[in-house]
Amino acid sequence: MVDVAKKETMDDITFRSDTVLSDVHLHTPSKRHLMVRLNTVGQPVFLSQFQLLLNKNNQESERKNEKELITENMGHQIREHTMATPLEDVGKQVWRGAFLLADYILFKRDMFRCCTVLELGGGTGITSIVMAMVAKTVYCTDVGEDLLAMCEQNVTLNKHLTEPEGGEVKVKELDWLKDEFCIDPEAPYSWSEAEIADLHDHTTVILAADVFYDDDLTDALFKTLYKITHNLKNSCTIYLSIEKRMNVTAYSRVKMLNFTLRHMDITCEAYNHFRNTLNDLETLQDSKMKYTSEPIKLAFCQFLVYERIEQLELWKIIAEPL
Ligand SMILES: C[S@@+](CC[C@H](N)C(=O)[O-])C[C@H]1O[C@@H](n2cnc3c(N)ncnc32)[C@H](O)[C@@H]1O
Predict the structure, then answer these.
(1) pLDDT in tens, 256-300
(2) What is the distance in A from the centroid of ligand 1 to the CA of 240?
(3) Domain tally for the chain?
(4) pLDDT class for 32, splitting at 50, 70, 90?
(5) For residue 142, what are the domain limits?
């Protein structure tokens, strides 16, 4: 429960040159965020409620209008997040790509029922929590103890959404820059042998939302995808959301991350690198696995309130043994 004495609201955000802010937080409908605490590195943590507009009749098969906004049977996802963080802490904010992926999961929810799922770069956990409304087990992974603690807190705050369906979110560390899973029992968010075996034996879906903004990290993420899919027992479908952002220099990158161009006829380096790396994966001469990708049309209805701008894309990759 929130300590009333600590309740503060924030209407105006102060921008500094070294901070980034997700548009999701700028455009939260009420424009008000409740500050509940400072995290261990002194950043203010806010509590927001994101509306989940659920209606049993609005699944793929019964959809009437494309891009229809569902307005009945509302539920709420409660979310702790920070705002206006330095670049290395972007995972503590919620990004539009997470909403897009969550929308797709809700739209196709029958397809994900009882699955075992891995999310890479899960951030505050919004996509994993939505997935756990239908899936059996969701391994929500990221790096950084502070971020993973916030994610775990969000999993607890949203048990009302996941528990009725029996879904479980397991928050774990998975660093794309490291070759191995963290199995040190002393380390928080480490993996047990049984969890690693479960992941490899049962995962059929991998998710990652808005994780392509730095070329080195994109390379590391694709390397991780390659390695994990090779270790899975089954074929797997990977869903990746990405928001095209303008080309930025290292100098101005931090300032520009929260800026999305309306008309994108200039280059988007991070996006181009994503497409090239995806192409490399598909054309790889690999004796064990075949990767096939395609963009998913964004003509499905919205279950979450956010602006589905034209720079958002959703990609599907099928990874199957040869
Ligand atoms: C822009 S945020 C997106 C977070 C969340 N998926 C969303 O859309 O709201 C990028 C995420 O990638 C994570 N990330 C960055 N480097 C990583 C690494 N080496 N290993 C795992 N995750 C990483 C960040 O911590 C962050 O959560």
Answers:
(1) 444 444 444 456 889 999 999 999 999 998 889 999 999 999 999
(2) 12
(3) 1
(4) low
(5) 91-321
